[in-house]
Design goal:
The C terminus is likely disordered. Helices cover 50% and strands 10% of the residues. It is an alpha+beta fold. It is elongated, with a radius of gyration of 24 Å.
Length: 240
Amino acid sequence: MARRTSPENTSPKPPKEPGRLKQMWQVFTMTRRIDKTALPMMLLAFFVPVLLGVAAALLLTDGNVLALVLYIVVGVMLGFLLLLIVLGRKAERAAYSQIEGQPGAVGAVMKSGLRRAWRAAEMPVAVQGRSQSAVYRAVGRPGVVLIAEGGAGQTRRLVDEERRKITRILPNVPVHVLNVGPDADAVPLHKLAGRMNKLKSSINRNEVLAVSNRLQSLGQNGLPIPKGVDPFKVRSGRPR
């Protein structure tokens, strides 16, 4: 008599996640397709330290084989480290360029692009329903930062309302406003996290937590909007 198979045994197995090397290759392929300068910059970042290591090995070791090998190994390791740094930055910029201008793009930066010192949510605190312009809020050492997503004319009223609410309950906390949108003076999406980190510190870490908790009472009064898009899961478009 044939053995019966239980439903548990017949259920499909979850797909195996790609390994680290395969993930790196996928990121590199996506980045190279979007940014044509990625490969030359990565090669430059790798070979310059290697060549410097070889030159130092030949000039400074005085025939010591062990020292010569160590100089070359250090050059290779440093070159590989710089290559990964360049790849990471290029990949982040390429990924954000794929979602820039879409509703919820700022939410992707709030979710995965900020340092741990920041307390932010990928959902906006205010949304204009017709244009889907939105305002996001983050709390960090500089104080409270309002990030307007959309044209300055469309988000000005939303920003002013949020600023009034914050200053009413936190009159001594600085409020900064940044705009990500089509305007000439707007902050590009891939530079948003860096611009926020450059703001002057005004409060300490304990105050960051207290301010963030206090702002939770404001809630989210905007219309629903898609959550921040994960830029590293966006399929790159066809090259033009």
